Amino acid sequence: MLFEALSVIPEVFSPYLETSIMGRALRSGVFEFRAYDLRDWTHDRHRTVDDAPFGGGPGMLMKPAPIFEALDDIGSKGPRPHVVFFSPCGTRFDQRAAERLADKERVLCVCGRYEGIDERVYTLADDVFSIGDYVLTGGELAALVVIDSVVRLLPGALGDEASSVDESFSQDSGLLEYAQYTRPSSYRGMDVPEVLLSGDHGRVAQWRRENAIERTARWRPDLLESARLDPNERARARELMLEGEGD
Ligand code: SAM
Asked: pLDDT tens digits for 233-244?
């Protein structure tokens, strides 16, 4: 899979993408990455990519021409890229969206800066994603969030293939992940639940399932609606939510 990013600060991507799990996935060919400097598609001496907004208001906006021209050029080489823009006004990026992008051959991330982008540029977008209800200075962090979450779904990206299956938001359950512990079994007076030390895989699986439901009810009750629960689990989840409301 090829990821590309168009940005006025293309140098910010490599330090992250060439390190740790992303770096290993990049070196072993799980994905490829190319960053482009938007200023390469400007035609003036100052390589200007921004201008004042019509109608007034603070700050500057990204001009349409450099982005249109860059996408024409980049898109004309190779298979058509799936074009992703970032904005606090976009649809919320989530695990389903990551799974959907993981099926694409080529994803081109267009990173906004300043007060945002001329609205006409969004006609080029296949997706516009927000990574949360807060405002960042630019789309580069959002692009890295998207790339990281997609790459770890690609075959060969993680050491243990099962690691991305059993996680929070996974399609299997739609629940948050259960609590996990490692050695020592007792630390500063806090003991690991006995069942996890029992070696009884059936009981461990049961405990994890219940724990995932409890954690989801407590921290993300909004997820329970679409979670895959049997009738008993759904009743238990409702009980937990009512208890939570009483707190
Ligand atoms: N004026 C815009 C608004 O109020 O919606 C915010 C522009 S922001 C300062 C500049 C750029 O950062 C955006 O064009 C977008 O690419 C990126 N950005 C900021 N917050 C983001 C978020 N929550 N999710 C995704 N991208 C974001």
From this structure: 999 999 999 898
Q: Does residue 116's CB lie within 6 angstroms of at least one atom of ligand 1?
A: yes
Quick: pLDDT tens for 186-236.
999 999 999 999 999 999 999 999 999 999 999 999 999 999 999 999 999
SS (H, E, C) the chain: CEEEEEECCHHHHHHHHCCHHHHHHHHCCCCEEEEEEHHHHCCCCCCCCEECCCCCCCCCEECHHHHHHHHHHHHCCCCCCEEEEEEEEEEECCHHHHHHHCCCCEEEEECCCCCCECHHHHHHCCEEEECCCCCCCCCHHHHHHHHHHHHCCCCCCCCCHHHHCCCCCCCCCCCCCCCCCCCCCEECCEECCHHHHCCCHHHHHHHHHHHHHHHHHHHCHHHHHHCCCCHHHHHHHHHHHHHHHHC
The reply to whether ligand 1 has any atom less than 6 angstroms from the CB of 112 is yes
Spatial separation of the C-alpha atoms in residues 68 and 45, rounded to whole Å = 19
Look up the pTM and report it.
0.94
Pocket test for ligand 1, best of 135, 140, 144 (most atoms within 8 A of CB): 135
Q: Which residues of the chain have pLDDT under 70?
A: 160-162
